[in-house]
Amino acid sequence: MTMTETDNMRMVSWNVNGIRARWPRLMELLTCEQPDVVCLQETRCSEWHFPSERLREMGYRSRHSPGSQQGGGVAILVREDHPITERSVELDHQRDIAEGHWIELTTEGITIVSVYVPAGAGAGELSDAGKLAFLEAVARHACNEHSRPLLIAGDFNVCPTDEDLAPGALSPTDALVRPESRGRFHRLLWDGLTDAVRAVHPHGAVYTFWDYQAGAWQKNNGIRIDHLLLSPQAADRLISVEIDKAMRGRDKASDHTPIRVELAA
To answer: Which end of the chain is more exposed for a tag (fewer CB within 10 A), N or C?
Structure first.
C-alpha cells in the first residue's frame, strides 16, 4: 500500500545516543505514533547488533550505516506499507571521518537523509578540519539534489545562532558555535534549504539537546544542534514541526529529544 492524495507524511528524527539503551523509548514511539519514517542518529552499534528483526516485527523496514560503540551510526526506518528506492551514496570525505555518517533512501517520492556530523575539537580525536570538510561535502551533495523533494534530518553539531542555546550553555570557543561551523551550516540555507524548525518557530528558545551533566535538563540549559532541512519542493509541503521536549524527561532518556515533522501529500 502507498500513500493516497489525502495522506500526509509523518516523520521523526532522533539522536538516540545508543539504540539498545533507548529501545524501550523507541518502541513506545513506534507503537503509539506509527510515524511513516524515522531517522536515527548515534545508533552506537554494529550491524550485527542492530535490531532489524525486532523492527520488522513492529512493521518497519530499516537501513543502517553502523558506527562504533563510542559514537556515530545512522539509520532510517520506513513503515512497511511504503515503498523504498535504495540509494547508495557516499559523501566525499565520509570514509576519512570515522564518526561522520550519512544514509539516504527515497520513499513516496521524497528523498530522506539521516546524517550525523562530527562534533569537532573536544570530541575524541576528531578535528574541526574534519567536521568542516564533512559539512562541505553535505552542502555539495545537497546542492546537487535539492531540485527535487529532499529532507535532511540529523545531528549537525552546530548551533546556528546565539538564540539556539541557553545563556552560558556553551563556551564562546566551543566547536558547536565557532564561526567556521556556523558558516558551513548557513551555506546550506543560502543554497536554498529551509530550516524547518525555524520556519515554524522563528524565534525563541527551542532546544533539542540537554547535557547529562551539571543539571542542564533541570535548569533548561539546552542547545539546538539537531536540524531538519528541506529542499524548496519539500518546504512547500511543510505542515508542522514539533520538538518533543517531554521525551528528554523520561526514564533512561537520550540527551537529545525527537523532532517531528509533517509534510502534505
So the answer is: N
